[in-house]
Design goal:
Blueprint lengths: L2 H27 L2 E3 L4 E4 L2 E4 L2 E4 L4 E4 L13 E4 L4 E4 L4 E3 L2 E4 L2 E4 L4 E2 L4 E3 L26 E3 L4 E2 L4 E2 L4 E2 L4 E2 L4 E2 L2 E2 L3 E4 L4 E5 L2
Parallel strand pairs: 1-4, 2-5, 3-6, 4-7, 5-8, 6-9, 7-10, 8-11, 9-12, 10-13, 11-14, 12-15, 13-16, 14-17, 15-18, 16-19, 17-20
Antiparallel strand pairs: 20-21
Amino acid sequence: MTLYSKIKRRLLLVYGDFTTVISKFALRLNGVKYNSGLHVRGMVKIYNSGEISIGNNVTINSALWANPISAAGHTCFQVSGGGILKIGDGTGISNSSITCQQQITIGNHVLIGANCQIYDTDFHPLESRYRFGQDRNDNYIHRKPVLIEEGAFIGTGTIILKGTHIGRGSIIGAGSIVSGEIPPLEIWAGVPAKYVKKIE
């Protein structure tokens, strides 16, 4: 390792510690509950009018320097309408967006790759007459909880839609779109995600 590489690495470690302190302060200001060992590299964007809880020893990358394969360059938590977002112990999230209007539960030791998007809502009503004009009515927006169980691995660029349940230890291939039930210890990939094989 060159002297330049050593200095750069050391500076990033120091900067990472600094952004963790600032991010923890911002999380507290936004009503986020977090436990010990939280490490944040970069600045998390937070929009919270619900409930967000983060477990022990969670790592969040939220900057291009923290994970340069990401185009997004930050992690964003958007919880509205009294939604509940729970992130388990030892989980890692990298430059991804989570929008929660009902409930999203991410278990322990889950890895979420760069540029992933997790939504428990359709954002807009499916019926066109409720999307605009005098009959606009957000009460017709469809929402369903999302559950990602312990030890799951979500590949980069994956989109997880409302009502998805990903079983313990399963893997979702990069760039997949996931909706519905993924059994434990299986690999799924594609658009839409389909079964690939069991994990031995």
